[in-house]
Amino acid sequence: MSALLEVSGLTKRFGGLVAVKDIGFTINAGEILGLIGPNGSGKSTVMKCIMGIEKPNAGSVKLSGTDVAGWPTHRIARQGVGIVFQHSHPLQRQTILEHIKLALLPDNLLMLATDHGVTRRAEEIAARVGLAAVMHRLPRTLPFADLRRLELAKAIARNPKVVLVDEPFAGLTSGEVADFSNLIASFRADGHAVLLVDHNVKGVAALVDRVLAMYLGEYVAEGSAEEVMRNETVRRVYLGGKIETAARPDRAGKDRTPLLNVRGLGVLYGKATALEDVSIHVGEGEFVSVVGLNGAGKTTLFNAISGLVPHSGSIEWRGKALAGKTPGGIARDGIVQCPETRELFGDMSVRENLDLGGQHQTLQEATKQLNWLFELFPILKSRQSQAARTLSGGEQQMLAIARALMMKPKLLILDEPTLGLAPVILEQLSKAMETLRQTTDITVLLGEQNVTFALPHADRVYVIEHSRVVWEGDPGRFAEEAGAGYL
Amino acid sequence: MFRSRTFQIAVPALIVMALLPLGVGGYILGLLTLAYYYAVFAMSWDLLFGFAGEVNFGPSFLIGIGAYTAALLNHYWLWPIPACLIAGAFAAVIAGAVLAVPALRLTGPYFGLVTLVAVLLLQNMIVLFAGITGGEIGLDLPDVLSIDDGTNYYYALVFMTVSGAILFGLAQSPVGLILQASGQNATEAAALGFNVAKHKLAAFCISAFFSGLAGAMLIFYMGTASVGTVVEIAVGVNVIIAAVLGGRRTIIGAAVGAIFLIGAGELLRPLGQLATFVVSAVALVVILFFPGGFMGRILQSGGGE
After folding, report:
1. pLDDT tens-digit series, residues B175-188
2. Which of A95, A210, A265, B112 could cross-link with B57 by S-S, CB 3.0 to 4.6 Å?
3. Sign of the dihedral through C-alpha A373, A377, A381, A384
4. Which residues lie below 8 Å from residue B278, measured CB to CB, with a gap of 6+?
5. Residues A91, B181: C-beta atoms closer than 8 Å
6. ipTM, 2 dp
7. Which of B170, B173, B185 sits opposite A89 (nearest CB)?
């Protein structure tokens, strides 16, 4: 068999950040390779470099022997690469059939009319992906899964040698997943080379011939799905190392007053289900961890609590419904979120970022809080006058947490603080978490993919999988009850 | 279905417009003549904004280039009107391409800003070289299209109908489909193998051609070329408001918007300064609450299937 796609030495830097470092792999005709890694591992950047959406800094991308690295996207597409985007952005006034016809058109300014062959071909493709019944409808009248089918149909229409599929199953029900698996498998049967990009091995294990795992832009492991799942490094990346838990001294009032009570929460993103019937509660002074792989729905849960996304179900804060409050009002009520994306003011200094967090307090209180935070994160004290943008990833995360703490929150929501951080930084962050937990009575809701980071500090754990809470319990019981099925 | 619906609206409207000179006076005909030229400006603009997704804040740059090229050729070299019109249209295309090739490399609001600056540059040039261009006062033309109101009206109506048909047909063709895809999501369009820059540039040139041609026709109707009628930012703003008011991505909506804007401005003239205020307020309300515009609502209500 010949390699249709041959990637070698691929490197991509964004400013000082190395997003992809020396990645190489080959995909043969009739083969499906899974490219997996947690958020921020660089897998999407690899895909974009192949498609020409990002220009790689080094390395080659060979299509049947032709190096296309650095070419503009439309030329790479014509050379035989197709992509199935995770999110579909259909045109509003064109029918499904017209969208497929669009993909069949040549890049020609003088195409003023299409012949019947194009229409017939488009109809065949619609039938193949299961859109025949709805092909004359407009995209906005269709459910999410059909829009994903449309993306597949467009890729089929170009008849590419290499198909890149971004998170093929995100937001789909299990029945739809089976359908999509069959469609993707049909690419393989037709002799195409397929690259599936996903967060975890589990989702694509049944479909792929081989898996390549990435972490922090680097190669971690390659092999069959089972081999990669058994790989020590991969397990460490996803689960962390040995799981340790630590109990902390009980406090009066703990677990008695439900500070936050979420009941039957549901969130839709357009037509995709992001959360379904999620119920959690957090007691005063409790440290609760919500663990789940990327895409499970953790961030959506936090955004719903912070009032950033519309939702169904009820969220009660100290016995009162939060419905109708603005995000700003919710934050002033004491629920402060430290988002996954950190959202620092990059051009302001570390000190200015912190001072902004303390705006609502008297100068005296703010100074006291600031001094306490400098004890918790000594590194920030020495970086005070530096622009936040110039901090390392770990330092930025500490600053983001510190800024949230400056607001003296009653409930601190930490969304994936370990995202993209090196292990040594994790240890520092972990220590700060433990200090926070042992010396203050702050209530924390932590969202994490990294179980090793999330469990040691937790009083209680929820596991979210595919938009639902699938397990709740003591961190001590996690390993035996939920640990095995997690990856 | 979309097509036939548009036709159902456009054909009876055109018949009524063609019969108008039998029933109304010269004053109203003169007003509508102006409105029809504005309609072409707005339709050309909609091709760029509604389909290619690029906001051109300087439609009057293209209009002004076309108008002043034609005016100068007629004034100094006494070129016949048809030659002046053709030269004006092509000058607008060339100037548009010179502007668009570098500007389309920019993303986000920068393209719009470049086109805005271009208008100011053109306006300054005309004022600076007042000795040649007539400056603020304007340039008198030895030739006019016609001195008869009815003839002028029909020139404008036919011109608007033909331009509108071409622009509408283009927008509905496969090329228009590619253009829409490029405008809404350039990355996805490129991933389907389309050279986005090429298609957008083509759209800009077509938009420039009709804008320049309409600008040149307008000054031969008026008999004079002046900054106030074809170059000023306010002219461009009116064109943009007309297109958005009438309905983005519909082409003919832009024509409806232009006729409404000019007509309403005139109907409300007894209000004096207040007229502009009322028209602007209506435009604001429509844009805020019905971003689809007049035609967007009419066409969409039945287009959902």
Report:
1. 999 999 998 888 88
2. B112
3. negative
4. B264, B268, B271
5. yes
6. 0.83
7. B185
Across B240-262, average pLDDT? 90
CB atoms A111 and B169 under 8 Å: no
CA of B54 vs chain A CAs: smallest distance (Å): 16
Give the nearest chain A residue to B197 (CA atoms): A74
**What integer pLDDT is reported at residue A255 of this predicted model?**
52
Would you state the pLDDT for residue B290?
82
The region, left, alpha or beta by phi > 0 then psi within -120 to 50, assigned to residue A255 is left
Structure-token match 């995209």, residue found: A139
B190 touching A (Cβ < 8 Å):
yes
Q: Could you report the average pLDDT of every consecutive run of 10 residues in chain A (487 residues)?
A: 86 82 94 86 90 93 93 93 86 88 87 81 92 89 86 91 88 80 91 89 86 89 88 75 56 62 86 85 88 82 90 88 87 87 84 86 87 88 84 83 89 86 76 84 87 84 88 81 65
Among A147, A197, A263, which Cα is nearest to A32's?
A197
Q: Which chain B residues are Cβ-neighbours of A72 within 8 angstroms?
A: 190, 195
List A residues 84-113 in contact with B (Cβ-Cβ < 8 A): 85, 89, 91, 93-94, 98, 101-103, 105, 107-113
Mean pLDDT of chain B: 89
Tokens found for residue B124: 């300054």
**Closest to A107 (Cβ–Cβ): which among B169, B170, B195?**
B195
Task: Give the start-to-end residue ranges of the domains of chain B.
Answer: 31-232
Look at residue B156 and tell me whether its pLDDT is greater than 90: yes
Whether A73 sits inside 8 A of B190 (CB atoms) is yes
CATH of domain B31-232: 1.10.3470.10
- B191 in contact with A at a CB cutoff of 8 Å? yes
Highest mean pLDDT among A284-288, B41-45, B295-299: B41-45
Signed CA dihedral, A20, A87, B195, B92: sign only:
negative
Q: Do A74 and B190 touch (CB under 8 A)?
A: yes
For chain A, the distance separating the N- and C-terminal CA atoms, rounded to the nearest angstrom, is 32
